[in-house]
Amino acid sequence: MTPITARRRHPAAGYAVVLLGLLCVGLLYAFITGGAPASASAPGVTLTAQISQGRMLFVEECATCHGQFAQGQPGIAPSLIGVGAAAVDFQVGTGRMPAKEPVEENPRKPVVFTTQQIHALADYIASLGGGPAIPTAAQVSQAGANPGFGQELFVADCAQCHNFVGAGGALTYGKYAPALTKSTPTQIYEAMLTGPEAMPVFNDTTITPQEKRDVIAYVVQTRAEPNPGGFSLGRVGPVTEGLVVFLGLLLFMVFMAMWLTAKHGTSHE
Predict the structure, then answer these.
(1) pLDDT digits (tens, 9 = 90+) for 215-246
(2) Which of 168, 171, 194 is nearest to 181 (CA)?
């Protein structure tokens, strides 16, 4: 038996091969991640520094509810591992987070952080488990979008909750679909991509990126459209407007009946 063969049959040879393989994989991973470009959200700042800043912001403002490592706490706040940068940018960029107290739905509020801080926080959460990224300017651009087709998609998938023109409305179990009048194209795209709160997720397979741009174009276009029908009543649709007319006529008939009754009683006296 040669010396080489003897070493191969040594009990520790298998462990040595496994350790060598793990070392090679670790070096390869370090090479790939170490060469990652700087974050697009903050030019000139390395991704590592961005994540470090995001980590500090998270510990100061979010860890009380979401846990020290974003693992979540049952009954208080969900885990943020895997939600992605887009979800963080939407929740924090619309002022829904950080929340003052744990609630099922957080309304839109004034934004607490700067754009750079929001992106740093988003990069930190993304580093924990990936997830949908913040859409680029090209992804939310309305150039070449088809608002007519976007209206068809919006009516089919969104109008049941947000109303036909994005005015919002009440849902079941006390929930509420917010109005889209103040949402930016990026926030609308992120909402479709991440499905915040009661909203379902419309990933790129369900609604393609181009179709998302069409929906955004329609929502933005409705904000500048005039209302030819006079009083808009919040533009919440023909059912509500018809109900207002019906109640108005019913009230008029009640007053007329009371007036006729009073007049008839006076004439007999």
Answers:
(1) 999 999 988 776 665 555 555 555 566 777 78
(2) 168
